[in-house]
Design a protein that fits this description.
With 94 residues, this protein is mainly α. It is 87% helix and 0% strand. It contains three helices and no strands.
């Protein structure tokens, strides 16, 4: 039974990772392509990025690869969107 539960836990972790990445990436890709950040709140992407950093560290410390990989990907995407938003709000529009 432990063997089954271990694999089930892994499957659920990878499925969750795939869902989070696929749910998050369309916004990041759109923002990177268009640089349109008018509908984006700067604190949202700052907090999302920081949360991703902490979860990536936790995943690394626990050797939980789905947690680590998912949060590295979302942290990088959040950072890119955050800096595009920061540029648009404070440098480009002034």
């Amino acid at each position: 039974m432990d063997f089954f539960m271990t694999h089930l836990t892994d499957i659920i972790g990878y499925a969750g990772s795939i869902c989070l990445i696929l749910g998050y990436m369309p916004q990041a890709i759109y923002t990177i392509r268009t640089h349109d950040t008018d509908g984006i709140a700067l604190p949202t992407f700052l907090m999302t990025g920081l949360g991703g950093v902490f979860f990536a560290i936790q995943g690394l410390m626990l050797s939980n690869w789905p947690l680590f990989i998912t949060n590295v990907i979302t942290t990088v995407a959040s950072a890119i969107v955050f800096f595009i938003k920061l540029y648009n709000d404070y440098f480009k529009k002034k």
